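Hi there,

I know you've been waiting on this one. I reran it after we fixed the sequence typo, so this is the corrected version. Both the input and the resulting structure follow.
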Amino acid sequence: MIKVEDLKEKDLKELDDICDECKKEDESVSQNLILTGFKICKSCRVSKTIFPF
């Protein structure tokens, strides 16, 4: 059985505002996670849009 405490800890780790690309902490990470489904900051999102490879 899954404990509620384990789920809360896992959810909090996911919303830690640390970018997966540059590993910097930024407020825009959680916003982009909601909008796009990716944990990237605003600057990484712009660079991925301009240079998508």
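Quick highlight: Residues 4-50 form one domain.

Best,
R. S.
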